[in-house]
């Protein structure tokens, strides 16, 4: 059986969409507590559980965490896809048993349960936990650091979502991006960074089979307040995962699949472990550019002039009754020659009306764009189905 066939029939269907909070994963934790060690080593600022799952009994200790930013949920779904894969008994048992013998994988599925509940990047106190690695001012940060110090991992996996504004010069959006964080301001290629880079090369090789041209890496400017930089500085190889946009997949259901394959590659469950790895190949992975928008309307004629411009629209993610709704707003107006849209249309020199009307200003909310002279021509319309 191919791994893709297994995935498409067996991924964790109890987790879907963009909104994932503790209530969504408790039923899964109840199932897996019979087989894996599940503990609660800390509580959030609002006294919610911060569960930790341990999988395997091996000497290679790996620590991972998802939803450090509460509104970044794609990797949480992929983690439970991975656990479901490890837990099944019908396929791939040789590589699964080998993984369980060699590794002890500790994973926080939701490190920021308060932010997850509110669907915010920050925790309940408005603190970005990924900028709290030095001060350790928040209970969530203290919990992560406590486990890091106790288990002394050989590798850390820092798992996030990235916005749909990232892409590459080739016109592709950044669907999955990685980073081997800097360990100091000089961005020294330390031994721990090399290990992280080699593992990223391994994952990139796997992902190229599925999404060639859609894999990137982040700028490695050093920030000692960031968790990855702090752990890398401590000598522990750390990899930043960033789950991004794949075409119109705003539910990030395809991207979770690619994160799942990435995890399998890290643990040598897929891929050829005999192939040599060279950390220098990491630098051949293209760096993310902020060159994307959710929608671009080209060749719009401005009223009263002959000038033509392009209009970029971006979505804000808004939680309404535990549903994430995507609210469009005007992000930029101009030539936008070096920008790409996940969806693009050409107004062919037409003048337009916006609803709300006469609101063609950057930052303004917008629900519809129509042809000023033919209102039956709709260039853009807020789509209620883009909901997760």
From TrEMBL:
InterPro entries listed in its UniProt record: Peptidase_M14
A Pfam family it matches: Peptidase_M14
Active site: 242
Limits of the Peptidase M14 domain: 6-270
Homology family: Belongs to the peptidase M14 family.
Protein name as it appears in the record: Peptidase M14 domain-containing protein
Organism: Aequorivita vladivostokensis
Source organism phylogeny: Bacteria, Pseudomonadati, Bacteroidota, Flavobacteriia, Flavobacteriales
